[in-house]
Amino acid sequence: MFDCIVIGGGPAGLASALTLGRALKKTLVIDNNNARNKVTQHSHAFLTQDGVRPEELRAKAEHDVDQYDDVTRINDTVLNILKEEHNFIVETANQQYKAKKIMVCTGLRETLPEIEGLKESYGKSVFYCPWCDGYELRHQPLLVAVQPEHVKHMAMLINNWT
Question: Which end of the chain is more exposed for a tag (fewer CB within 10 A), N or C?
Fold first, then answer.
């Protein structure tokens, strides 16, 4: 029985696991190594790590987390979470685990429209997040594609970079 199972081994999941490890909480991190930022060249806005490659940031974070005996990391995919009285059962592709608490740190996934060539361009000339890529693309012409109800917000948001 784990005190907490953290689902997702990116920055949020590993930071959570690090904190739990320091609190002497028996913690399991489950991650399937399918990072959202796998097309990202550099990570930004992490103090002392601005501009580092995502793989390097993750490797350093994993190293830090691995220093705590109460934290275990596995490579697996969560298939289901069940509530059982005061605990949770987490079913993965390979096994079942039980925990008192669950933290879902999976982030988000973009849903790209079905436009020919878009997926192949993602992370090269097509970007999702102005906070992630706006600085590097500053003062360049751009096209913004958002739902109509978000046009005003996005126009105001990207104004600094264009």
Answer: N
Report the pLDDT value the prediction gives residue 27, as an integer from 0 to 100: 98
Q: Which two tokens stand for residue 140?
A: 């360049």
Count of residues in the chain: 162
User: Tens digit of pLDDT for each residue in 141-156?
Assistant: 877 788 899 888 888 8
Q: Which residues pair with 92 in a beta bridge?
A: 78
Task: Say if CB 3 and CB 101 are below 8 A apart.
Answer: yes
- Give residue for tokens 């999941």: 13
> How many helices (H) and strands (E) are present in the chain, helices listed first?
5, 6
Tokens at 15, concatenated: 């930071």
Predicted pLDDT of residue 41? 79
Long-range contacts of 110-113 (CB under 8 A, 24+ apart): 110/36, 113/145
Residue 71 CA to chain centroid, in angstroms? 19
Please give the distance of CA 18 from its chain centroid, rounded to a whole number. 15
DSSP, res 48? T
**Are 91 and 82 spatial neighbours (Cβ–Cβ below 8 Å)?**
yes
